[in-house]
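Pipeline run #58 for the internal structure catalog. This entry was flagged by the ingest filter as a single-chain record with no existing model, so it goes straight to prediction. Upstream metadata was stripped on purpose; only the residue string is passed forward. Reviewer on rotation: M.T. Logging verbosity set to normal.
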Amino acid sequence: MTFSLAVRDGGAFGSLICSSSPAVGARCVHLRDGAGAVHSQNITDPRLGARLLDLLEGGTPAPEAMDRVVATDATAPFRQLVAVDAEGHTAIHSGPNALGTVGEHEAPGAAAAGNLLASAEVPRVLVQAWNDATGPVEARLLAAFEAAMAAGGEAGPVHSAAITVVSGHGWRTTDLRVDWSDDPLAAMRELVEQWLPQRDDYILRAEDPARSPGYGVPGDDR
């Protein structure tokens, strides 16, 4: 019920994830500054994402971290896991009980996987679109979302999506979610267009409030 793309871009990690289930971004996305990007999907256990990130943060390369988690988890046959580490190494696990048509694709710094796909080619399309796109991480992830949907996306309707980024500041500098919509791509496109012009201002407000732009909201007379 999910297709996703995890990436490293310089010192940033990004995630695109989409599902026919509600609120996919709340359950399946795990990012940590300096460590990596992880997705835990297909009959999701969010605890696996945290376990993978802990190993990545400790310096274990993504393929070895994936092998260790899969080897020690009895539920691994039901799970699909995606990981990218700080060196750009990638790893994907798709258990034999993953649902429907399953696909995977990896390239340096990018890994995509999905289940219940319209086509096993969707993950390859995600990675190719990411590599072909230019601009901020968020815009490139959105381009990947658009390409995946044009390639068929899931076998059924997609209802939720999330684009998430950490970029070395200690929090999710972008955390955009469409938790339920009949057209999550259009909703996410609007969110990205609204958010990107303001993103760096919100970072500045956190790190140097004396230099931050005014809020421009009613009642703020400064």
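catalog note: The chain is about 35% helix and 30% strand.
catalog note: The CA atoms of residues 11 and 106 lie 19 Å apart.
status: ready for reviewer M.T.
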